[in-house]
Amino acid sequence: MYLILIELKDGVKTKERINKHHSWIKKNYDNGYFLIAGPLVDKKSSGMIIADIDSIQEINSIISQDEFYPNDANYEVHKMKANFIASNL
């Protein structure tokens, strides 16, 4: 499992590009790779994804398909282990 933090660079956000980015998220959600995704409400032009993927190579391959990759966003990837999961998720 991985936590992905994404921060868009200044001046790259357009409605068309955000729609493509959301399509990328939905595709990976529908494929079962992304479990939770959404914007960070306390940090402008940023978001997070919790992904259920086995390897960093798979994560990198999926990230490389995002509309803002490689030059228009910063991607921070962290391998994580969920020890506690709320029953209402």
UniProtKB/TrEMBL annotation:
Q: Can you give the residue ranges of the YCII-related domain?
A: 2-80
Q: Which InterPro entries match?
A: Dimeric_a/b-barrel, YCII
Q: Pfam families per the record?
A: YCII (PF03795)
Protein family per UniProt? Belongs to the YciI family.
> What protein am I looking at?
Contains active-site pHis (YciI)
Source organism per UniProt: Fructobacillus tropaeoli
High-level lineage: Bacteria, Bacillati, Bacillota, Bacilli, Lactobacillales
